[in-house]
Amino acid sequence: MGTAGGGLNRLNPATGRFTRWVHDPRNARSLGSNDVRAVLEDLGRTLWVGTFGGGLNRLDVRTGVFTRFKNDPRDSRSLAGDNVTALLVDGKQRLWVGTDGGGLNRLVRERGTFLRYRHSPNAPASLAGDRVVSLCRDRSDILWVGTYGNGVSRCDLGKKQFLHYRHDPGDPNSISHDIVWTFCESPQGTLWVGTNDGGLNRLDRATGRVTRFAHDPKNPLSLSHDSVRMVAADKGGVLWVATNGGGLNRFVPGTGRFQHFRHSDRDPASLGLDDLRMVFPDREGRLWVGTYGGGLDQFDPETGGFTHYRSDPADPKTISGNYVRTAFEDRSGILWFGTHGSGLNRFDPALGTFTRYRNDPRDPSTLSNDFVFCIHEDRSGRLWVATYGGSLNLLDRPSGTFKAFRKGDGLPDDALYGILEDAQGQLWLSTNSGLARFDPQTRAVRGYTMADGLQSNEFNGGSYYQNSRGEMFFGGINGFTAFAPALIGDDAYQAPLAFTRFEISGREVPLGPAAGGRRILWQNISSTSRIELTHADKVIAFEFASMDYASPEKNLYAYKLEGLDKAWTSLGTRRSLMFTTLPPGRYTLRVKGTNSDGVWNEEGASLGLIVHPPWWRAVWAYALYALMLTGAVYLLVLFERSRERE
Q: Of 225, 430, 453, 479, which sees the most CB atoms within 10 A?
């Protein structure tokens, strides 16, 4: 028992005696404060004591010695505040510590350090407030955090392991801008991130340290422009940085110096244009640069000059357009280039000629859209093309025809940006409606959204990357998402389902007597097993909910009214039903639902319905009708016999 001033007490029920632990200012191994707000014992039989003013305390019950965990203003890994108000151990035996003013903390046991979760005005998904007063973990592994004055926060402890990196104006170790265009990782594990107006970032993922490289007008050796559209490393470890407005940059990590290659009207061998979208080193060591309006360039490192490939409408063997967005080299050494509005191009380096693949609205076997954002060859040698507006395309190389997979085929959106492949051969697609995992064999699609932890539902063209360890990176409008595909599994939790509301003629039916003294519900609708109705109850409605709070907006539902329906009817995400003028009879309303990962609870919830007929159709009424008919027939017989005797 924790007391407000008397420290910690332990009761021996057999003797009725208490053992006391109190704060001793002269003993650093005593209780940190006599104001105890939380006491918790974990599975390891360790007793944790949260005090107000004395931080978090760990008690060795055998020795009576306390170890204190307190705030150190100089150490961001210490407890965020000494006023501990709530403690909780989750299913993975992680200790969560709620503080009054320091937000929520999680203890990293092996290091004795803490991870802090605080309120941030710039982050809508952050903790609602820093004054935490209560913690609760439900059976679906959701952590509920009660705050003082700011309501409740919900955190899915079993959330998909998507990591979100974004810009925080108050944190110099965050990336420099929320719009992310490109990635590249060094063999040492350093991640380079190119942003819209924040320049280039070097992220050490082991330490979380970010180094920013930005354009400095006073420094000719700085980055030439802060809009970095693509960064790529060649075989020698040199970084090539394509900017939107500052041309091409050559950067040798460790030097801090950028060498610029710019367009010059006086030099025909200079870069075709300073507005770039793509830089791509191929396996032969050639460097290709895609400009936004100046065609495709090949860089010669010996001369520092560029060879230009530009579109000629009169020559079908030239590139189809001068706005070049993406490049890819297949396993046979053929280069493929995607353009902005001019389709796909196959380039044969030996001949120096291009083969064009364009959309023909009259021919569904052509490329579905001419805005090409990504080209990918899977492990089976199939070539996939992501388009903006035409969704996913599969090229049949012998015939040169395409098969399109669109939103109507299960993809979340027709605006596709990137394609990456995991170790199981699944394709991960970035779209304008989240990420999708696409199975090329079965054509099955699994979608992920912000509710699963993504940076946003909107991603960016060209912003996709996979490192040598198989980790994937997708950039968007709110930072970028990083994850290991093998760790993104579905939750097997079968969420229970309950009825939550019952209406007649648009009005909720109360518990107890209703208007006119009629009593329909004898207990809450969630606990009711049977409802009796009359023929006058012509419009009835029900609401229900699957008790999975990870992403409740993704829960699916289906129903069947036994006695009327033979098959289940899908409701999608709608969790309400209405019936009008049900015929008299006995029914069972069955409703089933899923969790946010689409796992069904087949048992669901059921409710018996009895619709009584009007009095003139009741059993006793029909018996009366039969009796009256029999009497009438009898009287008629008597009448006829009396006439015969006359």
A: 430
Q: What is the chain's percent helix, strand, coil content, to nearest 5?
A: 5, 45, 45
Task: Say what percent of the chain tops pLDDT 70.
Answer: 98
Dihedrals φ, ψ of 639, to 5°? -65, -45
E-only strand ranges, 349-444: 353-357, 372-377, 383-387, 391-396, 401-405, 416-421, 427-431, 434-438
Taking the C-alpha atoms of residue 386 and residue 382, their distance in angstroms, rounded to an integer, is: 13
For the question of whether the overall pTM of this predicted structure is more than 0.90, the answer is no
Instruction: Name all contacts of 424-433 with Cβ < 8 Å and 24+ positions apart.
Output: 424/485, 425/378, 425/379, 425/380, 426/485, 427/376, 427/378, 427/384, 428/472, 428/474, 428/485, 429/386, 429/392, 430/459, 430/460, 430/463, 430/464, 430/474, 430/476, 431/459, 432/457, 432/458, 432/459, 433/457
Beta strand 530-533 pairing with 600-611: parallel
Residues 610 and 569: their CA atoms lie apart, in Å, by 21
pLDDT surpassing 90 at residue 259: yes
Contact (Cβ atoms closer than 8 angstroms) between residue 357 and residue 367: yes
CA distance 324 to 19: 77
Tokens of 249: 């940059």
Q: What is the pLDDT of residue 517?
A: 73
Per the prediction, the chain carries an average pLDDT of: 93
3 state DSSP class of 13: coil
Q: What is the pLDDT of residue 515?
A: 62
Longest C-alpha distance within the chain, in Å?
137
Give every CB contact of residue 327 below 8 A, 6+ residues apart in sequence: 278, 280, 288, 290, 335, 336, 337, 338, 375
At residue 516, φ and ψ (nearest 5 deg) are 85, 0
Provide Rg for the chain, Cα atoms. 35
Contact 475, 182 (CB under 8 A): yes
Length of the chain: 646
Tell me which residue has tokens 């697609």.
429
Distance of CA 602 to the CA centre of its chain: 25
> Of 617, 594, 625, 356, which Cα lies nearest the Cα of 490?
594
Structure tokens at 494: 């079968």
- Distance separating alpha carbons of residues 486 and 470, to the nearest angstrom: 9
Q: What is the pLDDT of residues 579-628, one digit of tens each?
A: 998 999 999 999 999 998 889 999 999 999 999 987 666 677 678 878 88
- State phi, psi for 245 to the nearest 5 degrees: 125, -15
Does residue 646 surpass a pLDDT of 70?
A: no
What order do you get walking across the sheet with 401-405 strand by strand? 372-377, 383-387, 391-396, 401-405
The predicted structure's pLDDT at residue 396? 96
Q: Give CA–CA dist 236/339, Å, rounded.
A: 28
Query: What is the spatial distance between Cα 295 and Cα 289, in angstroms, rounded to a whole number?
Result: 9
Query: According to the model, what pLDDT value does residue 170 have?
Result: 80
Other CB atoms within 10 Å distance of the CB of residue 213: 22
